[in-house]
Amino acid sequence: MSSPTRESLPPAFAPSLATELHPPPSPRTHRQLRKLQSAHNLGAAARLSSSLSSSTSSASLISLQRFKELQNRDASPTRRVVSNRSPGRHRSNSDLTSPASLLNAGAMAVRQRFAMSKTSAAADAVSLERLLRDGPPDSDVASALESARLKVLDQGIKSDNDGMSSVRIYVWLIFLNAPVVETDMYLALVHRGASPAYAKIRNDTFRTLTTDPLFRRRVSEASLIRLLNAVAWKLHDVKEVRRPRSGRQSLPCTDSSGSRPSTSHTATSSPAAKNRARALTLTTEGDSEVNAVESGTYVQGMNVLAAPFLYAARSEVEAFSAFYRLLTKEVPGYIRGAMTGVHHGLELVDKVLAIVDVRLHLHLVNKGLSAKIYAFPSVLTLCACTPPLPEVLRLWDFLFAYGPHLNIVCIVAQLVMMRHDLLNSSNPNKLLRSFPALVAEDIKKTALALVNRLPDDVYDEIVKHAQ
Protein backbone atom coordinates (compact mmCIF):
# COMPACT_ATOMS: atom_id res chain seq x y z
CA MET A 1 0.00 0.00 0.00
CA SER A 2 1.35 3.38 -0.99
CA SER A 3 2.03 5.93 1.70
CA PRO A 4 -0.43 8.78 2.02
CA THR A 5 0.44 11.87 0.05
CA ARG A 6 0.24 15.44 1.31
CA GLU A 7 -2.80 15.98 -0.93
CA SER A 8 -4.71 13.21 0.84
CA LEU A 9 -4.50 14.96 4.27
CA PRO A 10 -7.56 16.92 5.47
CA PRO A 11 -7.50 20.59 4.49
CA ALA A 12 -7.03 21.68 8.11
CA PHE A 13 -3.68 19.85 8.25
CA ALA A 14 -2.44 20.85 4.81
CA PRO A 15 0.50 23.27 5.01
CA SER A 16 -0.05 26.71 3.65
CA LEU A 17 1.92 27.48 0.56
CA ALA A 18 2.57 30.95 1.99
CA THR A 19 4.36 29.58 5.07
CA GLU A 20 8.13 29.91 4.93
CA LEU A 21 9.80 26.70 5.96
CA HIS A 22 13.07 26.70 7.93
CA PRO A 23 15.51 23.87 8.39
CA PRO A 24 15.26 22.10 11.77
CA PRO A 25 17.63 23.37 14.48
CA SER A 26 20.79 21.44 15.05
CA PRO A 27 21.46 19.52 18.29
CA ARG A 28 24.08 22.14 19.17
CA THR A 29 21.36 24.83 19.20
CA HIS A 30 19.32 22.78 21.75
CA ARG A 31 22.35 22.41 24.02
CA GLN A 32 22.94 26.17 23.98
CA LEU A 33 19.33 26.84 24.93
CA ARG A 34 19.53 24.39 27.87
CA LYS A 35 22.75 26.03 29.10
CA LEU A 36 21.13 29.47 29.01
CA GLN A 37 18.08 28.19 30.87
CA SER A 38 20.24 26.53 33.56
CA ALA A 39 22.31 29.68 34.00
CA HIS A 40 19.12 31.70 34.42
CA ASN A 41 17.73 29.34 37.06
CA LEU A 42 20.99 29.27 39.02
CA GLY A 43 21.23 33.03 38.96
CA ALA A 44 17.68 33.40 40.26
CA ALA A 45 18.37 30.96 43.09
CA ALA A 46 21.55 32.81 44.04
CA ARG A 47 19.73 36.14 44.13
CA LEU A 48 16.96 34.63 46.29
CA SER A 49 19.47 33.12 48.69
CA SER A 50 21.31 36.42 48.96
CA SER A 51 18.11 38.30 49.73
CA LEU A 52 17.14 35.85 52.49
CA SER A 53 20.55 35.48 54.09
CA SER A 54 20.33 38.71 56.08
CA SER A 55 16.89 37.87 57.51
CA THR A 56 17.73 34.29 58.44
CA SER A 57 21.24 34.68 59.79
CA SER A 58 20.03 35.37 63.33
CA ALA A 59 17.52 32.51 63.17
CA SER A 60 20.26 30.15 62.03
CA LEU A 61 22.43 31.17 64.96
CA ILE A 62 19.53 30.60 67.35
CA SER A 63 18.88 27.18 65.83
CA LEU A 64 22.55 26.28 66.15
CA GLN A 65 22.62 27.41 69.77
CA ARG A 66 19.43 25.42 70.49
CA PHE A 67 20.98 22.35 68.91
CA LYS A 68 24.04 22.69 71.13
CA GLU A 69 21.81 23.05 74.20
CA LEU A 70 19.95 19.88 73.27
CA GLN A 71 23.22 18.04 72.82
CA ASN A 72 24.42 19.18 76.23
CA ARG A 73 21.14 18.22 77.85
CA ASP A 74 21.06 14.79 76.24
CA ALA A 75 24.66 14.17 77.27
CA SER A 76 23.58 13.62 80.89
CA PRO A 77 24.23 9.97 81.84
CA THR A 78 21.32 9.82 84.28
CA ARG A 79 18.24 10.87 82.32
CA ARG A 80 18.37 11.38 78.56
CA VAL A 81 16.12 10.92 75.60
CA VAL A 82 16.77 7.40 74.43
CA SER A 83 16.40 8.21 70.76
CA ASN A 84 18.25 10.69 68.60
CA ARG A 85 15.99 13.71 69.01
CA SER A 86 16.65 16.28 66.32
CA PRO A 87 16.05 20.04 66.62
CA GLY A 88 14.54 20.00 63.14
CA ARG A 89 10.85 20.13 62.38
CA HIS A 90 8.54 17.85 64.29
CA ARG A 91 6.47 15.48 62.26
CA SER A 92 2.93 16.59 61.68
CA ASN A 93 -0.13 14.59 62.60
CA SER A 94 -0.61 13.64 58.97
CA ASP A 95 2.77 11.92 59.05
CA LEU A 96 1.54 9.32 61.52
CA THR A 97 2.34 5.87 60.20
CA SER A 98 1.06 2.45 61.09
CA PRO A 99 2.04 0.76 64.37
CA ALA A 100 4.28 -1.58 62.36
CA SER A 101 6.14 1.36 60.86
CA LEU A 102 6.50 2.89 64.33
CA LEU A 103 8.08 -0.35 65.53
CA ASN A 104 10.60 -0.15 62.71
CA ALA A 105 11.28 3.50 63.53
CA GLY A 106 11.81 2.58 67.17
CA ALA A 107 14.24 -0.18 66.25
CA MET A 108 16.11 2.29 64.06
CA ALA A 109 16.28 4.71 67.01
CA VAL A 110 17.91 1.98 69.09
CA ARG A 111 20.50 1.34 66.39
CA GLN A 112 21.18 5.07 66.08
CA ARG A 113 21.59 5.29 69.81
CA PHE A 114 24.24 2.59 69.70
CA ALA A 115 25.99 4.25 66.77
CA MET A 116 26.14 7.55 68.65
CA SER A 117 27.16 6.10 72.00
CA LYS A 118 30.51 7.10 73.42
CA THR A 119 30.96 4.28 75.89
CA SER A 120 34.36 2.74 76.40
CA ALA A 121 35.25 -0.39 74.49
CA ALA A 122 36.12 -2.15 77.75
CA ALA A 123 32.61 -1.61 79.16
CA ASP A 124 30.94 -2.68 75.91
CA ALA A 125 33.00 -5.85 75.72
CA VAL A 126 31.72 -7.34 79.00
CA SER A 127 28.29 -8.72 79.68
CA LEU A 128 25.79 -7.05 81.97
CA GLU A 129 26.22 -9.80 84.55
CA ARG A 130 29.99 -9.41 84.59
CA LEU A 131 29.66 -5.64 84.73
CA LEU A 132 27.62 -6.01 87.90
CA ARG A 133 29.95 -8.58 89.42
CA ASP A 134 33.32 -6.97 88.65
CA GLY A 135 32.37 -3.32 88.57
CA PRO A 136 33.17 -0.72 85.90
CA PRO A 137 36.36 -1.35 83.89
CA ASP A 138 39.08 1.19 84.57
CA SER A 139 36.83 2.70 87.27
CA ASP A 140 34.90 4.54 84.55
CA VAL A 141 31.50 4.64 86.25
CA ALA A 142 29.81 6.98 83.76
CA SER A 143 30.82 4.85 80.77
CA ALA A 144 29.77 1.66 82.55
CA LEU A 145 26.33 3.11 83.36
CA GLU A 146 25.83 4.18 79.75
CA SER A 147 26.90 0.75 78.55
CA ALA A 148 24.48 -0.93 80.98
CA ARG A 149 21.62 1.25 79.74
CA LEU A 150 22.38 0.43 76.14
CA LYS A 151 22.57 -3.28 76.91
CA VAL A 152 19.16 -3.13 78.57
CA LEU A 153 17.78 -1.11 75.67
CA ASP A 154 19.05 -3.49 72.99
CA GLN A 155 19.28 -6.90 74.65
CA GLY A 156 17.17 -6.62 77.77
CA ILE A 157 17.91 -8.45 81.00
CA LYS A 158 18.14 -12.20 80.65
CA SER A 159 15.33 -13.96 82.47
CA ASP A 160 13.28 -17.13 82.31
CA ASN A 161 9.69 -17.46 81.12
CA ASP A 162 8.43 -16.36 84.54
CA GLY A 163 10.50 -13.19 84.36
CA MET A 164 12.89 -14.34 87.07
CA SER A 165 16.46 -13.07 86.88
CA SER A 166 19.32 -13.19 89.35
CA VAL A 167 20.55 -9.71 88.38
CA ARG A 168 17.41 -7.67 87.65
CA ILE A 169 16.89 -6.23 91.14
CA TYR A 170 20.53 -5.14 91.28
CA VAL A 171 20.26 -3.44 87.89
CA TRP A 172 17.18 -1.60 89.17
CA LEU A 173 18.94 -0.54 92.35
CA ILE A 174 21.83 0.86 90.33
CA PHE A 175 19.62 2.71 87.85
CA LEU A 176 17.55 4.15 90.72
CA ASN A 177 20.74 5.05 92.60
CA ALA A 178 19.24 3.46 95.69
CA PRO A 179 21.39 3.46 98.82
CA VAL A 180 22.32 0.31 100.69
CA VAL A 181 19.77 -0.46 103.42
CA GLU A 182 20.84 -2.47 106.43
CA THR A 183 18.65 -5.40 107.30
CA ASP A 184 18.49 -4.30 110.94
CA MET A 185 17.00 -0.97 109.94
CA TYR A 186 14.27 -2.66 107.92
CA LEU A 187 13.56 -5.09 110.76
CA ALA A 188 13.31 -2.18 113.19
CA LEU A 189 10.61 -0.62 111.01
CA VAL A 190 8.75 -3.94 110.81
CA HIS A 191 8.95 -4.49 114.59
CA ARG A 192 7.32 -1.14 115.27
CA GLY A 193 4.00 -2.78 114.48
CA ALA A 194 1.04 -1.22 112.72
CA SER A 195 1.75 2.11 111.06
CA PRO A 196 -0.84 4.92 110.84
CA ALA A 197 -1.72 3.60 107.38
CA TYR A 198 -2.02 -0.04 108.45
CA ALA A 199 -5.81 -0.29 108.09
CA LYS A 200 -5.71 1.08 104.57
CA ILE A 201 -2.82 -1.21 103.65
CA ARG A 202 -4.72 -4.28 104.84
CA ASN A 203 -7.72 -3.14 102.84
CA ASP A 204 -5.66 -3.33 99.61
CA THR A 205 -3.07 -6.08 99.95
CA PHE A 206 -5.44 -9.05 99.73
CA ARG A 207 -6.56 -7.95 96.26
CA THR A 208 -3.12 -7.22 94.80
CA LEU A 209 -2.67 -8.94 91.42
CA THR A 210 -5.17 -11.62 92.43
CA THR A 211 -5.46 -12.92 88.86
CA ASP A 212 -1.69 -13.40 88.43
CA PRO A 213 -0.69 -16.93 89.49
CA LEU A 214 3.03 -16.15 89.22
CA PHE A 215 2.79 -13.36 91.76
CA ARG A 216 0.53 -15.26 94.14
CA ARG A 217 2.86 -18.26 94.05
CA ARG A 218 6.02 -16.28 94.82
CA VAL A 219 4.91 -13.33 96.98
CA SER A 220 2.86 -13.73 100.13
CA GLU A 221 0.41 -11.15 101.38
CA ALA A 222 2.34 -11.00 104.63
CA SER A 223 5.52 -9.84 102.87
CA LEU A 224 3.55 -7.20 100.96
CA ILE A 225 2.03 -5.95 104.23
CA ARG A 226 5.44 -5.77 105.88
CA LEU A 227 6.95 -3.85 102.99
CA LEU A 228 4.13 -1.32 102.70
CA ASN A 229 3.94 -0.88 106.47
CA ALA A 230 7.70 -0.27 106.71
CA VAL A 231 7.54 2.29 103.88
CA ALA A 232 4.57 3.96 105.57
CA TRP A 233 6.54 4.26 108.82
CA LYS A 234 9.51 5.73 106.97
CA LEU A 235 7.38 8.28 105.14
CA HIS A 236 5.54 9.08 108.37
CA ASP A 237 8.80 9.82 110.18
CA VAL A 238 10.04 12.08 107.39
CA LYS A 239 6.72 13.92 107.38
CA GLU A 240 6.86 14.42 111.13
CA VAL A 241 10.34 15.89 110.92
CA ARG A 242 9.35 18.33 108.17
CA ARG A 243 6.01 19.38 109.60
CA PRO A 244 6.03 22.73 111.47
CA ARG A 245 6.14 22.06 115.21
CA SER A 246 4.28 25.14 116.39
CA GLY A 247 0.92 24.52 118.02
CA ARG A 248 1.16 20.75 118.37
CA GLN A 249 2.92 17.97 120.24
CA SER A 250 5.29 16.16 117.90
CA LEU A 251 5.32 12.40 117.79
CA PRO A 252 8.55 10.64 118.71
CA CYS A 253 10.71 9.88 115.71
CA THR A 254 13.12 7.12 115.02
CA ASP A 255 16.69 7.13 116.12
CA SER A 256 19.59 6.49 113.79
CA SER A 257 18.89 2.77 113.74
CA GLY A 258 15.30 3.27 112.62
CA SER A 259 13.69 2.12 115.91
CA ARG A 260 11.39 4.18 118.13
CA PRO A 261 11.57 4.61 121.91
CA SER A 262 9.94 1.82 123.82
CA THR A 263 7.17 4.10 125.11
CA SER A 264 5.88 4.72 121.61
CA HIS A 265 4.70 1.17 121.17
CA THR A 266 2.66 1.38 124.36
CA ALA A 267 1.19 4.70 123.32
CA THR A 268 0.06 3.48 119.91
CA SER A 269 -1.61 0.43 121.40
CA SER A 270 -4.36 2.46 123.11
CA PRO A 271 -7.65 3.15 121.27
CA ALA A 272 -7.11 6.91 121.43
CA ALA A 273 -3.66 6.57 119.91
CA LYS A 274 -5.01 4.33 117.17
CA ASN A 275 -7.68 6.88 116.30
CA ARG A 276 -5.06 9.59 116.23
CA ALA A 277 -2.87 7.43 113.98
CA ARG A 278 -5.74 6.96 111.56
CA ALA A 279 -6.29 10.70 111.51
CA LEU A 280 -2.65 11.22 110.59
CA THR A 281 -2.91 8.94 107.57
CA LEU A 282 -2.81 10.90 104.35
CA THR A 283 -4.81 9.55 101.44
CA THR A 284 -6.62 11.07 98.51
CA GLU A 285 -9.56 11.79 100.80
CA GLY A 286 -9.98 15.35 102.02
CA ASP A 287 -8.67 18.59 100.68
CA SER A 288 -6.75 20.00 103.60
CA GLU A 289 -3.79 22.25 103.02
CA VAL A 290 -1.49 19.67 104.58
CA ASN A 291 -2.66 17.05 102.10
CA ALA A 292 -1.96 19.40 99.23
CA VAL A 293 1.70 19.90 100.02
CA GLU A 294 2.96 16.93 102.03
CA SER A 295 3.76 13.41 100.95
CA GLY A 296 1.36 10.83 102.30
CA THR A 297 2.22 7.66 104.13
CA TYR A 298 0.05 5.50 101.87
CA VAL A 299 -2.24 6.00 98.89
CA GLN A 300 -4.38 3.42 97.20
CA GLY A 301 -2.43 1.80 94.37
CA MET A 302 0.90 1.69 96.15
CA ASN A 303 0.28 -2.01 96.74
CA VAL A 304 0.32 -2.70 92.98
CA LEU A 305 3.36 -0.45 92.51
CA ALA A 306 5.22 -2.42 95.21
CA ALA A 307 4.30 -5.85 93.82
CA PRO A 308 6.93 -6.10 91.02
CA PHE A 309 9.69 -5.14 93.45
CA LEU A 310 8.85 -8.02 95.77
CA TYR A 311 8.55 -10.38 92.82
CA ALA A 312 11.92 -9.44 91.34
CA ALA A 313 13.88 -8.96 94.57
CA ARG A 314 15.73 -11.70 96.41
CA SER A 315 14.84 -10.20 99.80
CA GLU A 316 12.35 -7.78 101.27
CA VAL A 317 15.17 -5.39 102.16
CA GLU A 318 16.17 -5.04 98.50
CA ALA A 319 12.54 -4.46 97.52
CA PHE A 320 12.19 -1.88 100.30
CA SER A 321 15.28 0.05 99.18
CA ALA A 322 14.23 0.22 95.51
CA PHE A 323 10.56 0.95 96.24
CA TYR A 324 11.26 3.70 98.76
CA ARG A 325 13.77 5.30 96.40
CA LEU A 326 11.25 5.27 93.55
CA LEU A 327 8.58 6.93 95.68
CA THR A 328 10.75 9.63 97.21
CA LYS A 329 13.07 10.54 94.32
CA GLU A 330 11.41 9.57 91.05
CA VAL A 331 7.64 9.95 91.59
CA PRO A 332 7.06 11.83 94.87
CA GLY A 333 4.17 13.69 93.25
CA TYR A 334 2.30 10.40 92.89
CA ILE A 335 1.89 10.00 96.67
CA ARG A 336 1.56 13.66 97.59
CA GLY A 337 -1.80 14.56 99.09
CA ALA A 338 -4.19 14.77 96.17
CA MET A 339 -1.83 12.85 93.85
CA THR A 340 -0.95 15.95 91.88
CA GLY A 341 1.74 14.11 89.93
CA VAL A 342 -0.69 11.44 88.74
CA HIS A 343 -3.25 13.99 87.59
CA HIS A 344 -0.56 15.96 85.80
CA GLY A 345 0.51 12.74 84.12
CA LEU A 346 -3.05 12.11 82.94
CA GLU A 347 -3.16 15.57 81.37
CA LEU A 348 0.09 14.78 79.60
CA VAL A 349 -1.31 11.51 78.21
CA ASP A 350 -4.05 13.53 76.50
CA LYS A 351 -1.57 16.16 75.33
CA VAL A 352 0.91 13.65 73.90
CA LEU A 353 -1.83 11.69 72.14
CA ALA A 354 -3.14 14.91 70.57
CA ILE A 355 0.35 15.60 69.21
CA VAL A 356 1.19 12.18 67.81
CA ASP A 357 -2.27 11.07 66.64
CA VAL A 358 -4.85 13.84 66.46
CA ARG A 359 -7.41 11.60 64.77
CA LEU A 360 -7.38 9.04 67.57
CA HIS A 361 -7.39 11.79 70.18
CA LEU A 362 -10.46 13.48 68.68
CA HIS A 363 -12.21 10.12 68.35
CA LEU A 364 -11.77 9.42 72.05
CA VAL A 365 -12.73 12.97 73.03
CA ASN A 366 -15.91 12.75 70.96
CA LYS A 367 -16.75 9.59 72.89
CA GLY A 368 -16.25 11.42 76.16
CA LEU A 369 -13.01 9.57 76.96
CA SER A 370 -10.15 11.48 78.50
CA ALA A 371 -7.09 9.90 80.06
CA LYS A 372 -8.41 10.44 83.59
CA ILE A 373 -11.17 7.92 82.80
CA TYR A 374 -9.06 5.05 81.47
CA ALA A 375 -5.37 5.72 82.23
CA PHE A 376 -5.31 6.47 85.97
CA PRO A 377 -4.14 2.99 87.06
CA SER A 378 -1.53 2.83 84.30
CA VAL A 379 -0.03 6.18 85.30
CA LEU A 380 -0.01 5.50 89.03
CA THR A 381 1.46 1.99 88.82
CA LEU A 382 3.83 2.47 85.87
CA CYS A 383 1.68 0.01 83.89
CA ALA A 384 2.08 -2.70 86.57
CA CYS A 385 -1.71 -3.03 86.63
CA THR A 386 -1.67 -4.61 83.16
CA PRO A 387 -0.61 -8.28 82.92
CA PRO A 388 1.44 -10.33 82.35
CA LEU A 389 3.90 -9.68 85.15
CA PRO A 390 7.04 -10.84 83.26
CA GLU A 391 6.33 -8.20 80.60
CA VAL A 392 5.88 -5.58 83.33
CA LEU A 393 9.37 -6.41 84.58
CA ARG A 394 10.83 -6.02 81.09
CA LEU A 395 9.07 -2.70 80.61
CA TRP A 396 10.38 -1.53 83.99
CA ASP A 397 13.92 -2.42 82.89
CA PHE A 398 13.53 0.22 80.20
CA LEU A 399 11.79 2.76 82.45
CA PHE A 400 14.39 2.57 85.20
CA ALA A 401 17.24 2.75 82.69
CA TYR A 402 15.99 5.96 81.06
CA GLY A 403 13.52 7.41 83.55
CA PRO A 404 10.07 6.38 84.91
CA HIS A 405 8.68 9.57 83.33
CA LEU A 406 8.74 7.72 79.99
CA ASN A 407 5.78 5.71 81.28
CA ILE A 408 3.58 8.53 79.95
CA VAL A 409 4.86 7.91 76.43
CA CYS A 410 4.54 4.14 76.92
CA ILE A 411 0.85 4.54 77.76
CA VAL A 412 0.31 6.56 74.59
CA ALA A 413 2.26 3.91 72.70
CA GLN A 414 -0.26 1.31 73.85
CA LEU A 415 -3.11 3.51 72.61
CA VAL A 416 -1.43 3.92 69.22
CA MET A 417 -0.94 0.16 69.00
CA MET A 418 -4.72 -0.19 69.61
CA ARG A 419 -5.70 2.61 67.22
CA HIS A 420 -7.28 0.41 64.55
CA ASP A 421 -9.63 -1.24 67.04
CA LEU A 422 -10.33 2.02 68.84
CA LEU A 423 -11.14 3.96 65.67
CA ASN A 424 -13.46 1.22 64.42
CA SER A 425 -15.26 0.81 67.73
CA SER A 426 -18.45 2.68 68.51
CA ASN A 427 -17.75 2.07 72.21
CA PRO A 428 -13.98 2.39 72.75
CA ASN A 429 -14.53 2.65 76.48
CA LYS A 430 -15.18 -1.06 76.50
CA LEU A 431 -11.73 -1.70 75.02
CA LEU A 432 -10.03 0.72 77.39
CA ARG A 433 -11.48 -0.76 80.57
CA SER A 434 -8.63 -3.26 80.45
CA PHE A 435 -5.66 -2.68 78.19
CA PRO A 436 -4.42 -5.56 76.03
CA ALA A 437 -1.68 -7.74 77.45
CA LEU A 438 1.65 -5.96 77.64
CA VAL A 439 4.29 -6.66 75.01
CA ALA A 440 7.23 -4.76 76.45
CA GLU A 441 9.45 -4.87 73.38
CA ASP A 442 6.77 -3.48 71.06
CA ILE A 443 5.75 -0.80 73.57
CA LYS A 444 9.37 0.24 74.02
CA LYS A 445 10.03 0.58 70.29
CA THR A 446 6.78 2.44 69.68
CA ALA A 447 7.55 4.82 72.54
CA LEU A 448 11.00 5.49 71.11
CA ALA A 449 9.46 6.46 67.78
CA LEU A 450 6.88 8.71 69.47
CA VAL A 451 9.48 10.57 71.52
CA ASN A 452 10.87 12.08 68.30
CA ARG A 453 7.49 13.66 67.57
CA LEU A 454 7.29 15.58 70.84
CA PRO A 455 8.27 19.25 71.11
CA ASP A 456 11.02 19.93 73.61
CA ASP A 457 8.79 21.82 76.03
CA VAL A 458 6.32 18.93 76.19
CA TYR A 459 9.10 16.42 76.78
CA ASP A 460 10.52 18.60 79.56
CA GLU A 461 7.08 18.71 81.13
CA ILE A 462 6.93 14.91 81.04
CA VAL A 463 10.30 14.69 82.77
CA LYS A 464 9.16 16.96 85.61
CA HIS A 465 5.53 15.92 86.00
CA ALA A 466 6.03 13.47 88.89
CA GLN A 467 8.16 15.73 91.08
Secondary-structure map:
Blueprint: H1 27-74, H2 99-116, H3 121-125, H4 128-134, H5 141-154, H6 168-175, H7 183-191, H8 198-205, H9 213-218, H10 221-242, H11 262-268, H12 271-280, H13 289-293, H14 302-312, H15 316-330, H16 340-356, H17 358-366, H18 371-374, H19 376-380, H20 389-402, H21 407-417, H22 419-423, H23 428-432, H24 440-451, H25 456-464
Helix pairs in contact: 2-24, 5-20, 6-15, 6-20, 8-10, 10-14, 10-15, 14-15, 16-17, 16-21, 20-24, 21-24
What are the salient characteristics of this protein?
mainly alpha, about 60% helix, Cyclin A, domain 1, Helicase, Ruva Protein, domain 3, about 475 residues
Structural features, described:
It contains 25 helices and no strands. The chain has 467 residues and is mainly alpha-helical. Among the domains are: 121-155, no CATH class; 159-239 and 297-330, Helicase, Ruva Protein, domain 3 (Orthogonal Bundle); 332-466, Cyclin A, domain 1, CATH 1.10.472. Helix 6 packs parallel to helix 20 and helix 14 packs across helix 15.
